[in-house]
Amino acid sequence: MPRLTARERREAYQREYSFQKRHGKPFFPNAVFHDTIVSLIVVALIMGMAVLWHAQFGAVPGAATAERIGGMLGPAYEAKADPGVLGYDPRPDWYFFFLFELLRIFKTPQLLIVGSIIIPTIWMVLLIGWPFIDRNPDRRLSRRPIALALGVTVPIILLTLTFYGSKAPGAAGQASTEPGAAAFAGGACSTCHTLANAGTAGNVGPVLDDIKPDYATALSFITNGKGGMPSFKGTYTADEISCLAGYVSTWAAAKGTTPGPNAASAKATYPASCTKAGGLFTGTATNAVGP
């Protein structure tokens, strides 16, 4: 397609402008009328949802701090926060689920800024700037493949992130008091691995409750690393590594206070190695498995 000069573009614009003035519809009252109708529909929808929400309220509870239940649109109000509850699982509102999932994907301290600021900013800049970037006047979708791909891809990505964010676990739970649990939950292990006994919900590495490693396997991986897992030989002492390996093999796939299926593989060293390691590794368990 030949490139038009500034004069040719100006003349083409003037011809189009003159044609639209003769045959087009004026902004007032046509566009104003359409905008008014849509605005009234939106306001009516909000008012209808408010009425439905109020109509489904439960009875006013007797206790001033209790929750008043609601219907499909949520409770009237929640119960007063209890500062004595340690296992509260905070979750965002549904329209932040996509960001919640992004933060789960980019969860290391070095990548948090990517998920929380850089990616949402790029999306926002594209949304605002695309009309200025793609100035093709053709309205046929087949002739605007880049704009069509962007317009379809971004909503799909947002909806996918929202879906997975709604299904994702919230904050990590509270670690048990078993030897090694606090060290596991407070260190690099919690960033990558999910282990119910430790209250961690990492999604980078495998779920330890599913793979149930024995002591030798856990010790080898922690010491030497493998695949995407780094070696912690220079990070932890031998006793600390032995404690973590014993803790993982003992409490992976555990049922409450009953150790997991590979607990016997660590009996020779766990929890004695945790006692030698000291600090967070010692724990305060009363039912530790060991000789």
Explain briefly what this protein structure is.
The chain is an all-alpha fold and 291 residues long. It contains 11 helices and 2 strands, in the order αααααααββαααα. 50% of the residues lie in helices and 1% in strands.
Describe the structure.
The protein has 291 residues and is an all-alpha fold. Among the domains are: 90-171, Helix Hairpins (Orthogonal Bundle), CATH 1.10.287; 181-281, Cytochrome Bc1 Complex, Chain D, domain 2 (Orthogonal Bundle). The chain is 50% helix and 1% strand. It is built from 11 helices and 2 strands. The protein has a two-stranded antiparallel ribbon with strand order 1-2. Helix 3 (97-105) crosses helix 4, helix 3 (97-105) crosses helix 5 and helix 9 (215-224) crosses helix 10. The protein starts with 5 loop residues before the first helix and ends in a 14-residue tail after the last helix.
